[in-house]
Sequence to fold (485 residues):
Amino acid sequence: MLEKQDFALKHFVMKQTLFAACFLLTCQILAARTNQPLSPRLSSDSNLSRTLDSLLSPQFKLTEPGIAVLVAKKGEIIYKKAFGSANIELNTPLQPDMVFRIGSITKQFTAVAILQLAEQGRLTLQDSVRQYIKDFPSKGHTITLEHLLTHTSGIRDYADADSSNPFIEREDFTPVRLINYFKDWPLEYAPGSKYSYSNSNYVLLGYIIQLVSGQDYHQYLKDHILTPAGLRHTGYAEERTIIPGRVQGYMRNRGFFENTDYQTLSMGFACGDLLSNTEDLYRWNNLVVSNSLISRSSVDKAFSPYKQTDGTFSKYGYGWFIDTSYGHRCIHHEGQVSGFIALEMYFPAEDIYIAILTNVKSGEDKTDFSDRRFRLFTQIAYLALGNNFLRQVEVSAATLDSYAGVYQLSSGKATLTIYKKEGNLYCDLSNGTGKNMLLSPLSETKFYLPDVRRIYTTFEFMLEGGKVTTVVTNQEKKYEWKKVK
Fold:
């Protein structure tokens, strides 16, 4: 039985904001099965290298947190560099092979572990959660493992909880204690009917891996995934363990750099508690896409958007987002955790892979620092794809005027004000997280935000009878805003 605990969580380490993340075989068997190099060659692309150097080098001083970037094309690493500091206090320059926390990219490893167990016949994706966690309430529905993998369970994200205990993030938690916190909450919707990103799903999956395998989650990953695959720089980000090359995390919430606040690693169980470096992440991607970890059938399902009960598709598979980013089909994930941001993107048609790791997370910084730092992610991706800028379309002044107005979030009280200034559209969020944000047109009805604080974000205006009724914002989650003025 699950032990009942009375506590609440606040500012969970994996909390995502609107604007802003495994191997059973031996190395020899993996090498035999993969059609991509397991030890990638470092190639050269002088034009891209010079352009990325000129973009990144001026923005990362040796006295500031830094960034590590890897770009690979067609099985070869063509760019792998780091800029800035790994430890400001020790004046340690950041090196390309250093190790960062990767936040929610951890979910991919959890998903692959579940798929491996499914291929061994030790579980099925249609099994109910209650089959493994007997006292997890049914809530009148069957919640399957597939619902957990695809964030369609309806289980609320325990990152959304508040707490009266100001030191809750410093406590250590077991998976059972985490599950007991959210297990009795009502579902937000019927399982399978909608998508809503929730860290609770992957906490449950990690605990089920333990129950099915009889091993601690991290030990299972080490024995059956990380060690056989040769991911020497990937593993549990345990605070007490000495990890060579581990980078210090920072924040900049008051206009200057500080060591990041301590947040217990145990709150990220199975959904955000791993660390890695750029080359290990590239190796990981190679092994997944070459069917070296799980079967082709399992990979295809993991890389396919989930079909919901109404016949529509989400933009999430099993541990990966799947959508069109920067004009190309993209399989990707972002991770945000105390002091770190990680981003990986794979463009299968072009066979381009990008890994970006940073050791600063400053979502509350009121200066333009965060805007400038996060803007780099989009710029790096476009350069890697061979584009210097987004191709934009002309939108008439009358159309832009028709989009101006006040829009209210359909599921809350927040409002979005869109206005025209100097021939362009801009928007402000009522909660203060975004102000004077430029909307750049991709089509007559769809725009993107180049200065968004997190990842690629779009606005799409929906019309009925020729009049704008709604704007849909999309950045990992979709939000509908109804026009009220």
User: Anything to note?
Assistant: Residues 27-37+100-382 form a domain with the Beta-lactamase fold (CATH 3.40.710.10). The chain has three domains: 27-37+100-382, 41-93, 397-483.
